[in-house]
Amino acid sequence: MQKKVKVKPNSKLQKIEEQIDGSLTVHLKSPPVNGKANEELLKILAEKFDVPKSYIRIKSGLSSRQKLIEIDTEI
């Protein structure tokens, strides 16, 4: 499964908002420094989709706020 994700780092609260088009807006507490926000993003998405972090990959947008995430849901 692939999801478009818009990341908002340095937020006060950590939360996920689902948009009408199926994409996600993820508010992260971490700053976008040294991959901290990406690590937090993988962790929060793993919890939401109930899969290990290793099943989630950032396909594109590694250093961007707009990301394409691939989630391997088949175990």
Automatic annotation (TrEMBL):
Gene3D superfamilies (UniProt xref): YggU-like
Pfam families tied to this protein: DUF167
GO CC field: cytoplasm
InterPro entries to which the protein is assigned, alphabetical: DUF167, YggU-like_sf
Assigned protein family: Belongs to the UPF0235 family.
HAMAP family: UPF0235 (MF_00634)
Protein name: UPF0235 protein I8752_26780
